[in-house]
Design a protein that fits this description.
513 residues; Nucleotidyltransferase, domain 5; four-stranded antiparallel β-sheet; 15% strand; elongated; Integrase; Integrase_cat-core; IstA-like_C
Length: 513
């Protein structure tokens, strides 16, 4: 029997193949083949469990005998199929049994099938344990250590925070630096990670930081609304890790440590003046990590990702995610909210209530108990600007705002041409504030008379007065109204009879004697 253990032990000690051949009595071709297979399968060290029998089965699986009479199983195919979504060992055994029946062979029972697969997975896939299915999870976190960029003007060092995303199955990583850890950059980092991987995993596992999780609960955590919107857009599910349970996201923790050693530590003395320049250096280091051979398994992070995991990712939606940010504010007594030192109105009924605010690049939406109550175009430029919707005002405020020269002129046109002339005269001969007060009185007077009565009175006013005023107009209107009432009272017909005193003197006690 070939002494695989001795051959590999001598090879790892740097002994030449010629000397190993002379020592073990095996041909140099055999020794070369054993050493090459071990290297390809990632065996770099030997331990007590790696006996000659184990090494023979591991290095030459194709030479292992098949039990007589049973239908052979392609365990490599079973292993790859089992990595696919929703595929179970029970399903694969059912398919194997059907294939055995067609070939008129005896299939293994399910229990034997499962035991043999377990034996195969332990021996031949020892360096690649199947903890996660491909495309199942992306673990994300901020690294504890930071990098920095230098301000050209002041020479000040500005901290840069490092985001790390990892796919547990292939160990593929994505790393990017940002100037802060706020919600916008947290969401941007996820979008860039999805673009880098070329797809989306079924589940996101973040830490319980405030940019992602508002409140961590055992039953169901309360997610940041903007983070939940991102998950909905990319059709993935957020499952936060438990508080102080780093084993819930071991790949992210391991990747953070790896990124800290291989990227953050390596770039600690690199001087950059812009975040994009720093990210360019990070990208180069990241590519080096993802393409470096594993120490204890064949291939690289990228090769495993490309061959086994990329196809399992969900497609990225064609419509780009619209970045959102959520805030809360209290409605002031003037029925406005303050957002980034700008002011936006909401219906006055919500004064003193707390509301949720959804911000996009160009739009601001206000929600009260998950119902949208207002929306505005975002104000930009000089601080302290107001965006006020007239419909949000109480009636008396709305009347005040709507009382302006343009609206009064339009109102006058609905009455008649003489009213238009009178309004124009008032506006031309008084400052605007005073003119609006006079015209407000005119509109109040108009409520007591018909348009025809008002128009006729103003016509008379303009004809008789060179300096028309509301006082004279009011007098004219009242006189016309009084004259109209007088004409409407019926006048009794005069009698030709002269009645005089009809009761006579006797009635008053003065009879003639």
């Amino acid at each position: 029997m070939i002494d695989y253990h001795k051959i590999l032990a001598l090879s790892f000690d740097g002994i030449s193949q010629r000397t190993i051949s002379a020592s073990t009595g095996h041909s140099r071709n055999t020794i070369s083949d054993i050493i090459q297979r071990a290297k390809k399968l990632g065996i770099t060290l030997l331990n007590d469990t790696m006996t000659n029998i184990w090494l023979e089965e591991y290095l030459y699986p194709e030479k292992q005998p098949i039990e007589k009479g049973y239908y052979p199983v392609d365990w490599e195919k079973v292993h790859k199929e089992l990595q696919k979504k929703h595929v179970t060992l029970k399903l694969l055994h059912h398919e194997y049994a059907l294939a055995a029946k067609e070939a008129e062979k005896i299939p293994y029972a399910y229990r034997t099938f499962a035991e043999k697969y377990g034996h195969y997975a332990r021996k031949f896939k020892l360096t690649m344990p199947l903890r996660r299915k491909p495309g199942e999870i992306m673990e994300v976190d901020w690294a504890g250590a930071t990098l920095s960029i230098r301000d050209r003007a002041t020479g000040e060092e500005i901290p840069a925070y490092v985001f790390v995303a990892a796919l547990p199955y292939s160990q593929m990583m994505y790393v990017e630096a940002f100037l802060d850890m706020k919600s916008t950059n947290w969401l941007t980092a996820h979008i860039h990670a999805f673009d880098y991987f070329g797809g989306v995993t079924e589940t996101l596992v973040p830490d319980n930081l405030k940019t992602g999780v508002i409140k961590a609960k055992r039953e169901e955590s309360i997610l940041n609304e903007a983070y939940r919107e991102l998950a909905d857009h990319y059709r993935t599910v957020i499952v936060p890790s438990r508080v102080q349970k780093p084993k819930d996201k071991p790949s992210a923790e391991g990747s953070v440590g790896h990124a800290s050693r291989q990227i953050i530590a390596a770039l600690r003395n690199t001087q950059c003046f812009h975040i994009n320049e720093l990210n360019q250096y990070i990208s180069e280091k990241l590519e080096e990590i993802n393409t470096t051979d594993f120490q204890k398994r064949p291939g690289t992070r990228r090769s495993v990702f490309e061959e086994e995991e990329k196809s399992a990712l969900q497609q990225i939606p064609q419509i780009r995610f619209k970045m959102t940010e959520w805030k809360t504010a209290k409605v002031q007594l003037n029925y406005h909210i303050q957002v980034e030192r700008m002011y936006y109105s909401v219906p006055y009924e919500y004064a003193r209530e707390s509301v949720d605010i959804r911000l996009t690049t160009d739009l601001l939406e206000v929600y009260f108990k998950e119902v949208r109550i207002a929306s505005h175009k975002r104000l930009k430029g000089e601080i302290g600007q107001y965006s006020t919707n007239i419909d949000h005002m109480p009636d008396h405020h709305r009347s005040y705002v709507e009382h302006n020269p343009e609206n009064v002129t339009k109102w006058a046109a609905t009455i008649g041409s003489f009213t238009e002339k009178y309004v124009a005269y008032i506006l031309e001969n008084h400052v605007e504030k005073k003119a609006l007060q006079i015209l407000s009185t005119l509109q109040n007077m108009a409520k007591k008379y018909t348009p025809e009565e008002l128009e006729q009175a103003i016509a008379t006013l303009l004809e008789i007065s060179s300096n028309p005023s509301n006082t004279v107009l009011k007098s004219l209107l009242e006189r016309r109204k009084q004259a109209s009432k007088t004409k409407s009272v019926p006048v009794s017909k005069a009698s030709n009879e002269n009645h005089g005193f009809t009761r006579g003197a006797a009635y008053f006690g003065r009879e003639k004697k």
